[in-house]
Design brief:
about 140 residues; alpha+beta; Heat Shock Protein 90; 3 helices; about 35% helix; about 25% strand
């Protein structure tokens, strides 16, 4: 399978963008699920993880004129669904991810990505890009 871009989406850094990103991802993956390329569980996991990454991007993105959150979705040549979310925020260090205490509100997004994704990473270069991959093999 050759790499195939499925979706390129630019969103404003607002809370409504989380639902928009999840909805657009579902629209793109639905035909691939019907064709047996992406399994229904992979689709559901991708939507959950996209919600987490876009929420983080919206919370930490720079605001003001021209501020955007970018989401890119592709099928890779390694039979994986690759999703990347990029914002212009300062970013964070992803050297260690752990689940916060049960009474803490928030802070579980990257721990979920770490637990559920086949692979993931974060790149900070004056802005922040976080990505994850899910296997297609269970479709």
């Amino acid at each position: 399978m050759r790499p195939r871009t499925l979706l390129e989406l630019d969103l404003p850094p607002s809370p409504a963008s989380v639902a928009t990103a999840r909805h657009r991802l579902k629209e793109v993956l639905a035909p691939l699920t019907r064709e047996g390329i992406v399994s229904a569980p992979t689709c559901e996991t991708a939507m959950l993880l996209v919600s987490e990454l876009v929420t983080n991007a919206v919370r930490h993105a720079r605001t003001g004129p021209g501020a955007r959150v970018e989401m890119r979705v592709a099928l890779t040549d390694r039979r994986r669904l690759h999703v990347a979310v990029h914002d212009r925020g300062q970013g964070f260090s992803a050297t260690r991810v752990s689940m916060p205490p049960p009474d803490q509100v928030g802070g579980r997004g990257l721990a979920l990505v770490d637990a559920m994704a086949e692979d993931w990473g974060a790149e900070r270069t004056g802005s922040m890009r976080v990505w994850f991959e899910l296997p297609l093999d269970d479709a």
